[in-house]
Amino acid sequence: MTTRSAPAEDVAPRASTGRTGGGLRGIPQWRKRFGSLGWAIAGLGVAAIVWSLVVAGGEFPRELFPSVPEILAAARTLWTDGLLAADIAASLRRACAGFVLGAAAGIAAAVLTATTAVGRNLLQPVLRLLSPIPTIGLVPLAILWFGLGESSKTLVIALGVFVPVWINSHAGLASTPVDYLRAARCLGAGRGQILTRIVLPEAAPDITSGLRVGAAMAFVLIVVAEMTGTTEGIGYRIYQAQLFSQADRLIACLIVLGIIGALCDLAIAAVTAPVTRWAAEEH
Q: Which long-range contacts (CB under 8 A, 24 or more apart) does 193-198 make?
């Protein structure tokens, strides 16, 4: 008596054909092919559609709630007139100067408050008291001290960047596992070696988070800093558009500012990726 063997397809599961229809297994692969850029474009498209629907509803005055084509036309006019390129260059110059100064000071202060007794007992309480003060509230003081020139703008941006960079960096540096420190000391590592080879690499993800938040804060404060004592910059252009009720130009400048900020955030993430890759791999 002979018995029939079951078909191979009844014994082993069928190999995946790579099609997305019929289950959830194909979704991650489809997302990977689509890419983050595709998602960003899709999100902007949805936002433009929603905006257009609100404009078409007629609930808001057209001069205060321009359509997408009108906003794009305003941006094109600013670019062809040579204003937008000069404004972007001026704002980037000020934002970068304030970011570098504030980030360097924030990381240095975090090293002191997290790794030294003097910094922890003397400097940290002072910074804790100063950090809740809104940076925008310091604009009049910066103008009083440094006038309406570039120094006051750089100082305002640097102070705004300093706070998130210090808070995040301090949290990362202070949370280094004690076992790592003890093991390093047992192996004869000095204070400098422990800082550069254990503490800083371990805190790299938190430092990076602080830098990214600080970069975003720099572009928030650039609008405030450029509203006085200047004749160029995205903030100055936004202020002028508000004075003359040019909503299309104002929104166009805000969009440009958002795009620049997003690109800077991506740049920071790309530059710091080699030192934070271990954290991504753990998760």
A: 195/111, 195/115
Tokens of 6: 């079951």
**Angstrom distance (rounded) from CA 156 to CA 125:** 22
Q: Say what the alpha-carbon torsion angle 232, 226, 85, 68 is, to the nearest 10 degrees.
A: -120
The reported pTM is 0.79
Q: How many CB atoms lie within 10 A of CB 21?
A: 6
Cβ–Cβ under 8 Å, residues 182 and 208: no
Q: What is the pLDDT of residues 213-249, one digit of tens each?
A: 999 999 999 988 888 878 889 999 999 999 988 999 9
CA distance 124 to 36: 40
Ranges of beta strands (E only) in 143-279 are: none
**Taking the mean position of all CA atoms in its chain, how far away is CA 113?**
24
Instruction: Quote the CA–CA distance of 194 and 138 in Å, as a whole number.
Output: 37
| Residue 278 to residue 266: CA distance in whole angstroms | 18
Count CA atoms closer than 13 A to 139's CA, side-chain side: 14
